[in-house]
Specification:
Layout (H helix, E strand, L loop, with lengths): L5 E7 L2 H7 L5 H12 L1 H19 L1 H11 L3 E6 L10 H19 L6 E3 L1 E2 L5 H13 L4 E4 L2 E2 L2 E2 L6 H10 L2 E4 L15 H4 L1 H15 L2 H4 L4 E4 L10 H10 L1 H4 L14 E3 L5 H11 L4 E2 L13 H6 L5 H15 L6
């Protein structure tokens, strides 16, 4: 028996969610903000790109065939982050997360030995996050996907303490995947909204979790950061220096910021073998998981090949290829 190859960063598109929110108060404004953040050139490319990938995003048979081509045995499938809809009121938000959970579970049920799923929680309504997490787990999902912040709230907000406590108690995975960068129109050309925005948002969100003491209070949390955790793991030395040099920086967490990297998980999607090696060095080979961002253009069509290009020791290669995720998801050997 061999350890399965596990891709923890793969998405499903759920058109029924967009049908649910279409025309509701706040939806048009949210779309307009997204358009301003990305800029017209990016939107002109992204529209056809997504349309070309709809079969892989919606049809389990197409997904499985692509997985076979990539040499991936298991995917952890999360809703497209475009489905967060953190602008929605409480009633709509509950409908969104229930529909997302149930539709993702149904998609994964087409091949339960190869597809595991994640649900959504409405971060804009902290009173709903624990019921939403429980609903996802009731559908047989492995946890939930969240963005880097909600309007007016960072992940360090005390209102989210019940979410962290419940996720720790249940062993649920929390997949941190940003959607939208608050640098706004500064990144509206050359697709900077993604290439700079996503790793920035990852770094900010993880820093809030570290410096606020969330990881001290909830050491058993299973947080998986997309995009290799963004800029933070390879620039954590600046955080360590601040923690040593300034009382305001060290007030919230008990240990050096870099020590918390080994309490988090990171996907391998960094697009550079040198950065992947640095991520493994910073976080530990047992804390990095294979990720492809399937099937979007900012992902990797050959995640195993990209991992192999990093030149890791063989034991570390296989840990990242699948052993770490198999343990996290309690998967049986292939």
């Amino acid at each position: 028996m061999t350890t399965p190859t596990v891709d923890v960063h793969a998405h499903v598109l759920l058109p029924q969610i967009e049908a649910l929110v279409a025309g509701l108060p706040g939806h048009a404004e949210a779309k307009a903000l997204d358009a301003r953040r990305n800029g017209p050139d990016a939107l002109a490319v992204s529209g056809p790109m997504v349309r070309d990938r709809i079969p892989a995003l919606t049809d389990p048979a197409v997904r499985l065939a692509r997985m076979d081509t990539q040499g991936v045995d298991v995917q952890l499938v999360s809703p497209s982050p475009s489905h967060y809809h953190y602008w929605a009121d409480a009633d709509t938000a509950e409908k969104v997360y229930r529909l997302a959970d149930e539709a993702t579970a149904a998609h994964c049920a087409a091949a339960p030995d190869r597809l595991r799923g994640l649900g959504l929680v409405p971060l804009q309504h902290p009173e709903l996050v624990v019921p939403a997490l429980d609903h996802a787990l009731e559908q047989g999902l492995a946890g939930v996907e969240i963005s880097s912040h909600a309007p007016g709230r960072e992940l360090s907000d005390p209102a989210y303490e019940p979410l962290w406590a419940r996720a720790e108690e249940t062993g649920a995975i929390v997949f941190l995947h940003p959607f939208g960068c608050t640098l706004d129109e500064r990144l509206d050309r050359w697709y900077l909204s993604n290439t700079v925005g996503q790793p920035t948002e990852n770094a900010v969100a993880l820093s809030h979790l570290i410096f606020s003491g969330v990881l001290d209070r909830h050491p058993g949390l299973k947080i998986v950061a997309a995009h290799g955790g963004g800029y933070l793991p390879t620039h954590i030395g600046r955080s360590d220096h601040a923690w040593r040099a300034r009382t305001d920086a060290s007030a919230g967490c008990a240990e050096l910021p870099s020590s918390y990297l080994r309490r988090l998980y990171f996907d391998s999607l960094v697009h550079d073998p040198r950065v992947l090696r640095a991520l493994v060095e910073a976080a530990g080979a047992d804390r990095v998981l294979l990720g492809s961002d399937f099937p979007f253009d900012m992902g990797s069509d050959d995640p195993v090949g990209a991992l192999r290009a990093a030149g890791l020791p063989e034991a570390d290669f296989h840990a990242v290829r699948g052993a770490n995720a198999a343990a996290l998801l309690a998967l049986s050997p292939a």
